[in-house]
Amino acid sequence: MRIAQIAPLHEAVPPKFYGGTERVVAYLTDALVDLGHDVTLFASGDSRTKATLEAAWPRALRLDPSTRDVIAPHMLLLESVRQRAHEFDVLHFHLDYLPFSLFSALDVPFVSTLHGRLDLPELQPIFNTFSKAPVISISDSQRLSLPQANWLKTIYHGLPENLLTPQTDKKPQYLAFLGRICPEKRPDLAVQIAAQSGLPLKIAAKVDEADPQYFKSTFAPLLSQPHVEFVGEINEQQKPEFLSGAKALLFPIDWAEPFGLVMIEAMACGTPVIAFNRGSVPEVIDDGVTGFICENVQGAVGVLQRLDDLSRPEIRAQFERRFNARTMALNYIDSYVSLLQAAKHSTLQRADAR
């Protein structure tokens, strides 16, 4: 199958540090190539892939401070895909709703995976207007705000099986927080959980340009506490050691997280996840097997006493069963086949009508 993967340009594919969407695109693209498909990746020029790379912009926008209008490169990206659309059997976008208007008018099957939050009121008229644009969710809970969307399937994220592996020589000694410093991720609650449990906390996280006030006013004052160590952003090579050395990953989110890639990164290392019951968490975490689902800080502190009940080898095994990149790719191939069959059926109907 000839497949185009179209990634955002904000980060390289995969990102050098933080970046969920582009990381998933990288894993999916390589897995599709490994399965024998002819894949072209439209992404920034500093991306690395097993597919054919079509550089839509020289390098990731986050690493290029000279680019102030981030919409302009994405307009060029869309036009580049449009000009070559006829070369592919299916176009797979990771740009939210940006392709809907232009590509709904073409006869090449396309689909968009929606990676972000969908509970924003301004999205309602978009999905009312483009109610036939096919979309894929990354959790069932993500769909709740947009029941009118043309949902094809829910496909969970996956990681290459040997990308992150347990470091069994590491004795777990601390709690971990991994990801981004922002209000909805609630790293401040991770600090509270660690303080009340008497365990040290290591925080490996990106400080996003969108959240400097939260970092300065709410989070930075917490870093002076003796049990807190702020590591900063880490790359994939550093994650196995960081996660394997943790008694648990804390995921005290305060919003409807669409998926939460860090949860399966922890599971890949055999590390339990203690997560608040929001968004996708009940779909990703098997309570009492790969971690514990709780409602608040007190609940999280309580379940820390039960970590010894969990098997780290079983956590890893559950990751391999549910969240590997090959499984993710096979699920997407099923969706592509459904799109192609629907397009063929539509073409036959039009021919019969003549």
TrEMBL record:
Write down a Pfam family by its short name: Glyco_transf_4
Glycosyltransferase subfamily 4-like N-terminal domain residues are 18-121
Keywords from the named record: Transferase
Q: Which residues form the Glycosyl transferase family domain?
A: 168-297
GO MF terms held by the record: glycosyltransferase activity
Q: What is this protein called?
A: Glycosyl transferase
